[in-house]
Amino acid sequence: KAGVTQTPRYLIKTRGQQVTLSCSPISGHRSVSWYQQTPGQGLQFLFEYFSETQRNKGNFPGRFSGRQFSNSRSEMNVSTLELGDSALYLCASSSRQGLYGYTFGSGTRLTVV
Amino acid sequence: SQELEQSPQSLIVQEGKNLTINCTSSKTLYGLYWYKQKYGEGLIFLMMLQKGGEEKSHEKITAKLDEKKQQSSLHITASQPSHAGIYLCGADTSGATNKLIFGTGTLLAVQP
Question: Rounded CA gap, B109 and A34, in Å?
Fold first, then answer.
């Protein structure tokens, strides 16, 4: 059974640019949630999608957005990148209400220069 | 203050020694998850606890949940270098959404 796949693994962008990250959940999982991990703030929840609908959103500016497709794959977009957006972005997939746990991908390391 | 406090922040132990990591929530726990992370990599799922008094074990790692104290502990018996890494507890404090809050993590080093 394939795990959660995140692409790309590493990314370097310039301030002001935008970026799109991708997450393919475990087959059969309909929930995908995104997290940002930085040394200063730790792991913080960005948003969660279930059946193409955003169900919950963390305290991040509107520059952070996402979407989910009918095959449950999800994308996260960050517009007008700032240096502080440099982080490890992780996505997690789960089945019913995390009943069987949340499986994380290997993450995308974004560096903004 | 943090909704989920982990202690200690870091730990250095000799190989073969036992250790305990604690995770305390300021909110009601609907689910408590333990993960291990190697620096810069994804989170590896260790255990999930959902009921008060629940205790689970996997190999040499045991986790317990004290629902009344809103607290969980992770205990490693006879530590090995392979146990080194960052241990994170994550909690569902809403019971209604797939959203986890995480502790700040415990960095574990095991000296051979």
Answer: 28
